[in-house]
Amino acid sequence: MCGIFGYIGSDNNAADKVFKGLIDIEYRGYDSWGVSYFQGNSFKTVKKTGFLPSIFNFPSSSISIGHTRWATHGGVTEINAHPHLSCDNKLVLVHNGIVENYRELKKELTNHKIKSETDSEIIIHLIEDQLQDKNLKDAVSEVFNKLEGLNAIVISDGKEIVVCKKGSPLVLGKTENGYVVASDPNAILPLTKKLIFLEDGDLFSLDAGLDPEFKEIDWQYTKADLDKFPHFMLKEIYEQPQVLYNQIQSLDAAREIAEEIKAAFGTYFVGCGSASYTCLLAEYAFSKISKKHINFSIGSEFDYKEDFLTNKSLLIAVSQSGETIDVVEPVAHAKKRGVKIVALTNTLGSTLYRMADIKHLLNAGPEKAVASTKAVIAMVANILLYAYSLAGKLDLGIKVIEDSAREIENIIKRQDEIKKLADKIYNVQHIFVLGRGISYPVALEATLKIKETSYIHAEGFASGELKHGCLALVDKGTPVIVFLPNDETKAAVLANAMEVKARGAFVIGVGFENNPVFDFFFEVKDVGASSVLPHIVFAQFLGYFLAIKLGLNPDKPRNLAKSVTVK
Ligand code: M6R
Questions:
Q1: How far is 243 from 364, CA to CA, in rounded Å?
Q2: Of 223, 393, 562, 567, which residue is the catalytic one?
Q3: Ligand 1: does its nearest atom lie under 6 Å from the Cβ of 370?
Q4: Cβ 321 under 6 angstroms from ligand 1
Q5: Residues 305 and 279 sit within 8 Å (Cβ to Cβ)
Q6: Does residue 378's CB lie within 6 angstroms of at least one atom of ligand 1?
Q7: Got the DSSP string for 534-557?
Q8: How far apart are CA 155 and CA 211, in angstroms?
Q9: Which atom of ligand 1 is nearest to 347's Cα?
Q10: Domain 232-549, what fold?
Q11: CA-449 nearest atom, ligand 1
Q12: Pairing of strands 84-85, 92-97
């Protein structure tokens, strides 16, 4: 997590450039922010807790580094915010990652005044010590090699900026008059398209003599703004029908990946959070549509299941950001075993995109809200299209995706019905969500949307599981959402709905047909296997309206970040 941006050059608005860059990467962490700029012969530093303001006026300078923090070590305070300074205030540092051995390293710093509780500050004091007999680059190299864990650091002494990384992403850009460094290429594109993606172990000093070759890339900067919407989450929900139509414009990738799945000896879909639920959904979709078994794993667990991977295995990494470390790490390990890698990602140039043998972009446009909506919809649509392609029924796949896009347009028009439900249940302590078969991952995704945005405890179940223990939690008035698609699960799902109703639950039906068991019903037309898509959209709206009713910001939930680059 954590966003990094730095500039060095002959332009004298370095801090303004850094501040603008930070706005683009604030999604990486928004606990606090800070900018250091070199003025006269010393660094001045601004640090604040909370979100970045929309404007901030900095004095002129030609070297600056900045950071947006997602706290790991030490609370959310100005002192713990980056940049961190050396004792003599001559060095400044921003850091992304976790220094796993920082306690041990801290013991070496007996003669330093350590101000913060962070692992990051230790690094700058260690470098300060090394500077007694080394230049900055060598001092950084010496210290970086001692750090355990996945880290990226950017340091300046007012003459140069030194950057290095292992695990966490960093990109360099060469502008007309200088150099930029950032943790996301998109943030650099307004300034230059000449980029270098740092590989693990790379260490550069950004100065006029920087020799590596910058590659001109033809990517477009994608700016996301709110237009007429009050929140990105709402805007991104509205964009979903178009995102679905985009998916069926070109089906070459779906065909190619289906062929790879056919040829592979074992296919593994791997993702985290919402993306992991789309991977679980893939297991049901492939079984149902193409009569094929594929395997699903949560990214952070996949390392422990990799022993049997071979060079005939196929790994499909599913990730909006393409930077989730819990996916990047197992993919790197699988690659070493010769496994073929597919990246299904929304982010051009991301780490997973660059690692993959086959790259499939989601084309959902930038997603800013922490709660993933349109990227999830695009992931599910593509997984269904792979399954239909493998079954030789791509035409049917296209049809059901189009039908689901139209049904989502319809739900957008009927969103007030979901708002009324949110107004009714916003003050409950728990919400349970039930689904069977392909609707089980939908239930899990629904609960994640509710939890992230409203902080209401929600739990999703394969609906048959509830009576194996958790039914004990259902009390009079407990909201239980039941997904009812027109498929082989309907009779059993309705029976489970009866069971919770008998215990006093407030039963919310979402599906193709009303039933007396439901206390509240939201109709979603039957659009075949792709009914999962409008069902997910129901849950997105519910999460959004619960947040609004509770006075919360659905775009930036507490404690979370959009891109999870630490383990
Ligand atoms: O960028 P990714 O798709 O790899 O992110 C994975 C999860 O962190 C992400 O889906 C997270 O669970 C979302 N906030 C869910 O809304």
A1: 5
A2: 562
A3: yes
A4: yes
A5: no
A6: no
A7: HHHHHHHHHHHHHHHHTT--TTS-
A8: 19
A9: 1
A10: Rossmann fold (3.40.50)
A11: 16
A12: antiparallel
478-495 confidence digits (pLDDT tens): 999 999 999 999 999 999
Amino acid residing at 317: A
Q: How far is CA 432 from the centre of its chain?
A: 25
- What are residue 483's phi and psi, to 5 degrees? -85, 125
- C-alpha of residue 208 to centroid of ligand 1, in Å: 39
Q: Are strands 430-435 and 479-484 parallel, antiparallel or unpaired?
A: parallel
* pLDDT score of 58: 95
Distance between CA atoms of residues 213 and 85, nearest Å: 31
User: Ligand 1 center to residue 25 CA distance, Å?
Assistant: 16
487 and 461 Cβ atoms separated by less than 8 Å? no
**For residue 327, what are its two tokens?**
């996916």
Q: Which of 470, 465, 548 is nearest to 505 (CA)?
A: 470
- Give 168 Cα–ligand 1 centroid separation in angstroms: 17
- DSSP for 499-518 reads HHHHTT-EEEEEESS--TT-
- Letter for the amino acid at 124? I
How many Å apart are CA 390 and CA 291, to the nearest integer? 9
SS3 category, 50: coil
| Residue 47 annotated in active site | no
* 272 in active site: no
pTM tops 0.85, yes or no: yes
Q: What is the pLDDT of residues 287-299, one digit of tens each?
A: 999 999 999 999 9
Q: Whose CA is nearest to atom 16 of ligand 1?
A: 371
Q: For ligand 1, say whether the CB of 1 is within 6 Å of any of its atoms.
A: no
- Look up the CATH architecture of domain 3-216: 4-Layer Sandwich (3.60)
Domain with CATH 3.40.50.10490 in the chain: 232-549
Decide whether any atom of ligand 1 lies within 6 Å of the 371 Cβ.
Answer: yes
Q: What spacing in Å lies between the alpha carbon of 280 and ligand 1's midpoint?
A: 14
pLDDT band per the 50, 70, 90 thresholds, residue 20:
very high
Provide CATH 3.60.20.10 ranges for the chain.
3-216
